[in-house]
Task: structure prediction
Amino acid sequence: MCLLHGKEGIVGLGEIARFETDSPGAADVWWEAFCADIENETEMPGVHGTGPLAFGSFTFDGDRSTSPSVMIVPETVIGRRAGYCWLTQMSYDSVHADPPQVQPPPRKPTGLEVSDGVITAEGWVERATQVREILGEDLQRVLLMRDLMAHTDTPVDPRWIVKLCADVLPGSWTYLVQGAVGTTSKLVVRQIDGLITTRTLTHGPGGTIDPVPQLLEALHGRGFYARQHQRAVRWSEETLRPFCRSIEGSPFPGLVTAASDRLLATDITGAPLPTTRSLAAVAAIHPAPFVSGLPPWKALETIAEVEGVDRGRISGPIGWIASEGDGEWVTDWRGAQIDATDPNLVHVFVGQPVARDDDVNLLAAELEERIASTLSLVR
Result:
């Protein structure tokens, strides 16, 4: 298990407890009760992640998915932050005196072949056309997934995917929990050092001959893409506000580039209330507009009716929580799930937002480019 960002991050090894659930809220109740009976000492008091913690991976739609959400308490935690490294060991009885042994580096699987999943290219166009016809003022945008199946001749070592993602996109968050693996720029919630932050992301111009004028316009807060982004920012601010004494966000978006995508980004940061816990904020924010649409609750209903594939834990919140409630949680519209019974099979998901005035054929071409960019990382 891991959540890595640049040269910092947390890795979990082994397992001493797990809890399967259908919501971040229920998981938070379990974790708080679990921590009430934990005795622990640390040589780095006040530094996040140095005491007991749990990793979590939650389904995109807990009411409709056949995949359970899961919280896992690791036996060993290895962390790195601000030039310091630490090791935490947990046990019901006595911890091991020796640290974990260095393992051989992961090997790239051989014989990779990719085939259609539940949704073919033609099937995605049909669904996107159907969604576009029902969009309006009450439902402005929906993100639709396309899925693929990756087969290999040798078992997929998830550490190989983690290392690849971390090396290629060090500025993103690379995650692995219970076989759900990938890299993302979407921060759902980070509650650390007395601050709580969420990142609003929306897609910038794509598929145009020269997107620079539209990007510059959006970065100055003008035009279609800026208006679309501001709607998502307002939603994020309203959702995070009940957890904060005060809240602040930039009036203009920044720009995040990830693979073939240009994303407008605004970080919203607040001073959390004393009772705020990161998983409670995650429960309120998920599903964020970035992985569902706008407004999210309406988009979620539409996805359930139209998309036609169970996303499982892909595009659900994934991350870690410490005993006091601090934590770091991300999500993405692109990711992979290593099959629980067949280590040679990986279910890959890639999403594409659909708006009312979009050209569906152009969207399909952008999606194919995004899929090609994603698969190029592992070929």
Q: What stands out?
A: The radius of gyration is 20 Å.
